[in-house]
Amino acid sequence: MPTKAYSGSRILMNNIALYILIASATIASPGPGVILSITNSLTHGRKKTAYGILGISLGMLGVAIVSATSIGLVIATSKKMFLAIQLLGAMYIFYLGFKMAFGKRKLFVLDSGNTLDVSSTSAGRLFKEGLLTSLSNPKPILFFMAVFPQFIDTEQTYLSQFLILASAFCLLVLLIHFCYAEAFALASRYLWKAQDNLYLITKIGGVTLMFISVLLFVSVVFTV
Fold this sequence. Notes:
This protein is an all-alpha fold. It has helices spanning 4-28, 32-44, 46-77, 79-102, 123-135, 139-147, 158-186, 191-223.
């Protein structure tokens, strides 16, 4: 018969694929971070873009820590409140998905004359811009507050679960932003076609989030 700790770990690992799907759909949707990575790729070159992406990822980690601390306090105070947060979180995920799937199309605009010398901007400045872009955006806090509770087992150690979820998110930020930067660097001559693909990715991600949010909502309701 499996131990309680083993059972909890197995549940977390079974759910990690769903978490990665939600996080990937959210990260891939156009936002300040994605636009910054694309712009850096087109104006500063691939190598320096990496510093900006690293700043974005570490900024997300900082936001995740703030959100996780708040969630941890709620778990320690009231499990009923934690269930309420899970329900609100599922609804927020649905809202994000709806905006992505049916919101107005955002065009990526880059001035054709904006061709900075790759040596004119320091790597430190690009890192700082990426870090501040994440820290100054309130939406990631809402995202973490909505998503983390869906994958937390209150019977297991909270810190280990947080480390797995936060680390996975930051790694996904690095991977997806590097993919965007590389793709737009290669497709710079065909920017409008690249934007069409970006818009399609956003719509698919939005529908995916809406579907997942319904499943999460139902699962929480049946655990009450």
